[in-house]
Design goal:
Blueprint lengths: L1 H19 L11 E3 L9 H5 L3 E3 L17 E3 L2 E3 L20 E3 L2 E3 L21 E2 L2 E2 L3
Antiparallel strand pairs: 1-2, 3-4, 5-6, 7-8
Length: 137
């Protein structure tokens, strides 16, 4: 009698595990973005579902979760328009090659006195910014 109960219990547990590990069906395949990164240490279940992430165009709140690259959604990607060179200040506004994005504005850190060498690095009054350094010469 105990053997039957034990076998029944094992079968029920196997069935429950199998049902909980079935793949999640997504209705729109174009919303999948491939992920990068190692699956080292991940279980088979996690590896099975790490095919991609849902893009933010359907749900912009995804960009506000902890660990997101930024709070703004531009071209189906989460970005920070205050620091992103490809979306500086607003989506699609690209900074020039020698510029970076500081507080949503494209600046040349090699010559800008307010952002000399990096964002928010101000030169003292009367000093200039050359080659990314204040009063260089």
């Amino acid at each position: 009698m105990i053997k039957r109960i034990l076998i029944t219990l094992i079968i029920l547990m196997a069935l429950a595990i199998n049902l909980s590990a079935t793949p999640i069906e997504l209705d729109d395949e174009e919303d999948i973005v491939p992920t990068s990164g190692s699956l080292r240490g991940a279980s088979r279940f996690l590896a099975q579902h790490s095919r991609g992430l849902v893009k933010c165009n359907k749900n912009p709140r995804l960009c506000r979760v902890k660990g997101s690259p930024g709070p703004d959604c531009c071209k189906k990607k989460c970005v920070n328009v205050k620091t992103d060179k490809q979306n500086c200040g607003l989506c699609g506004k690209k900074c020039k090659h020698q510029e970076i994005c500081c507080k949503g504005k494209c600046v040349n850190v090699m010559t800008d006195k307010r952002n000399c060498g990096g964002c928010n690095n101000r030169c003292k009054r009367g000093n200039s910014c050359m080659s990314g350094m204040c009063s260089y010469a």
